[in-house]
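Minutes, project check-in

Agenda point 3 was the complex the collaborators sent over. CS summarized: two entities, 478 residues total, and the question is how they sit relative to each other. Sequences were read into the notes so everyone works from the same version.
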Amino acid sequence: MTAAPEIKIIGFDADDTLWDNEPYYRSLEDVFCEVMKDILPPEESSKELYKTEVSNLPLYGYGSKAYTLSILETALRLSREQLPAASIARILKAGKQLSDSPLKLLDHVETVLQNLAPYYKLIVVTKGDLIDQERKLKKSRLERYFHHIEIMSDKQPGDYEKLFRHLDIRPEEFLMVGNSLRSDILPVVELGGYAVHIPYHTTWLHEKVGDIQLPAERFREIASILKLLDECPWIKLKP
Amino acid sequence: MTAAPEIKIIGFDADDTLWDNEPYYRSLEDVFCEVMKDILPPEESSKELYKTEVSNLPLYGYGSKAYTLSILETALRLSREQLPAASIARILKAGKQLSDSPLKLLDHVETVLQNLAPYYKLIVVTKGDLIDQERKLKKSRLERYFHHIEIMSDKQPGDYEKLFRHLDIRPEEFLMVGNSLRSDILPVVELGGYAVHIPYHTTWLHEKVGDIQLPAERFREIASILKLLDECPWIKLKP
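CS then shared the predicted structure for the full assembly.
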């Protein structure tokens, strides 16, 4: 009935979509749980940390510095300010390593970008810490494929609306690719855009959502980014 | 000889140009010096902190979280990891207050923006922490005067070149207003743009530069932002 939609811009989430991220955060959490082990079992420490993180989100936002500060706050609270300074120093040092963790591209990412770049304007759409994300993009050596990088403080529908205005496009001209249903998929589909979900092997609790039903005309879930090239009917690689 | 330049976009630095910032950072530094006072005299503590800050800049960037982490690192180092956890907790809490410090506009800022907005596209050009700057802009209630906010990880000439490309203008169509010669004035004038310096009563050491001579055709120093309206020959308030 309606003409096939024409996608003009493809947005890629960065962390755990283009490169590994979550495992580095989990390593820092392990250091924290290890430091706390005489006070609380690891799963309890993790639970308390999660509470602190979520309550600090409006103030600190996302990223390695925010995460390190939330861990320190939780460690001091749980130890009733009795933690040895050496343990604090250990957390601080591991947090610094997180900020500068190595970058490992996920499989097939570069191939896919190479194939899409001639036909679409590609952008990175990420939330988090400005300097973290700029450093990772630089390390990734993927800058040349992207028109630019959009770093947002959050990925709520309102943030995507602002993005569409800024890009001067309609939602139906935009396709978002990412690993988080909550941040990359739901808000975009809700606004009338297209979205492709690529689950990552582990997901941060805060990004999890319950069972949802999304319209097949505007949503796909694929197992590997490589499938973007042949399992998404809206992506066309011929002029 | 040449036609009068026509400025299309005016960029405003934010911290200590539109609103107070440095005093809140100095308050946190006072807490740090107070905590360290049995180990080092305040001026020595400040010197050590500055060293840590500058060495962490490439990793942490600017902003309240970066500053808090650098203070904690310095405090642990200077105390040889002997600082009581209660002192760490005190720094962490004061750092959190810094992230959420009240916002006080500088005198005449709103009047000036009101007068300029009908004739120029106004933008905020700030370096620092994404969530810090978005929160401050929201608290300032100045959003309506600005086309958008550009948050950069640094303000080197290369960062301004990227800005000009992104805004699709030539340097001579851009005027920058700010309190930092190093970040707001020198790189813009160097690239061929216009710049107006409004000194703030206190300047962070890192932003200080030696004696410099700037061309009067493209540079002014004014004592108050109000003078933008009548002491800058390139700004014209009639159509």
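Noted in discussion: Chain B has two domains: 9-19+103-229, 22-99.
Follow-up: revisit at the next meeting once the mutant set is ready.
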